[in-house]
């Protein structure tokens, strides 16, 4: 018996399965076109990004051309299934330019690494649209402006490293909601304001480095809640007040730098017992 006669001998089944097949086929086309459109949008976004780079002395970006698919462009990684950009890694390439706000359209991005270049202008607030972003490395550039408070929308952020730039303004209080954040590094900038007490809610925080800024106020009591904290570096700022007593109960801590501030008070006599992992303790010029 041929296929046709089998189908015609079971009309109800055949019309069901034909419908299903047609539906599946349409659905497949639909999915392919959605995924295709989105990944093509990533290609256009990358070209927008490239257009904002004004100097590329090492020719790093020359592979960003239509002779190969964008997922093979240097510094670009894509997810295998969706062919969407997941990693953009352009570190240490002597690139000069500004960060295109369009980067906020790379909705599958989990890592953005632009460290050791000469990117200037501001951190685009559109980065706040990257809900999958885990690692943001913009350190060692010449970025100006403030830290956008809507980066607090990057709920999966683990590493925030914007040290060695020309950033001004305050540390946004809203960043205290980034519950997965482990590294917060903003040292060597010109930030002012205070250390937001909300950072005491960053229960995953292991590294907090704000040395060489102009941050004032006192060390928030809430930092005593950070039971995973290893590095606390706030030297060379304008901090005053005393070190909160609870701070000396963070047994995980290995490095404390509070040097060159206006901190006062005295140290608990049992500090060698309460902080058994301490390796470096800088407290000069207070
Ligand atoms: C385009 O990219 C390919 C692959 O990296 C490279 O070999 C080629 O030189 C590039 N073309 C131009 C015009 O830069
Ligand atoms: C990409 O982002 C820019 C700036 O945020 C926006 O103006 C533009 O409409 C977006 N493009 C697409 C194709 O989504
Ligand atoms: C910053 O990046 C430049 C290259 O752009 C490099 O020469 C320099 O050593 C880097 N500095 C640090 C502290 O990473
Ligand atoms: C940035 O530059 C510094 C100093 O040259 C170097 O130690 C560091 O490894 C560089 N970072 C990367 C990721 O290349
Ligand atoms: C952050 O601000 C920019 C510009 O104001 C906006 O385009 C973007 O959608 C905002 N992101 C979030 C997550 O609110
Ligand atoms: C920490 O989070 C709790 C609950 O979300 C909130 O009520 C509290 O104000 C936060 N603490 C600080 C210091 O912001
Ligand atoms: C700090 O830890 C010690 C020993 O575990 C404990 O006796 C003390 O009450 C703690 N201090 C605070 C303020 O919780």
Major sheet description: 10 strands, mixed
Helix and strand content put the structural class at alpha/beta
Fraction of residues in β-strands:
15-25%
Q: Can you list the ligands bound to this structure?
A: 2-acetamido-2-deoxy-beta-D-glucopyranose
Q: Report strand order across the widest sheet.
A: 2-3-5-7-8-9-10-11-13-15
Number of domains: 2
Poorly predicted ranges:
1-14, 28-33
**Distance between the terminal alpha carbons, to the nearest Å?**
95 Å
Order of helices and strands: HHEEEEEEEEEEEEEEHE
Under CATH, the topology of the largest domain can be stated as: Leucine-rich repeat, LRR (right-handed beta-alpha superhelix)
Question: What Rg is obtained from the alpha carbons, in whole angstroms?
Answer: 26 Å
CATH homologous superfamily designation of the largest domain: Ribonuclease Inhibitor
Shape: elongated
Q: Report the CATH architecture of the largest domain.
A: Alpha-Beta Horseshoe
**CATH class category label of the largest domain:** Alpha Beta
SS field, number of helical segments: 3
The count of strands amounts to 15
Helical coverage, percent range: 10-25%
* Arithmetic mean of pLDDT: 90
GO cellular component, one term: membrane
Signal peptide: 1-36
Keywords: ATP-binding, Glycoprotein, Leucine-rich repeat, Membrane, Nucleotide-binding, Receptor, Repeat, Signal, Transmembrane, Transmembrane helix
Subcellular location: Cell envelope; Membrane
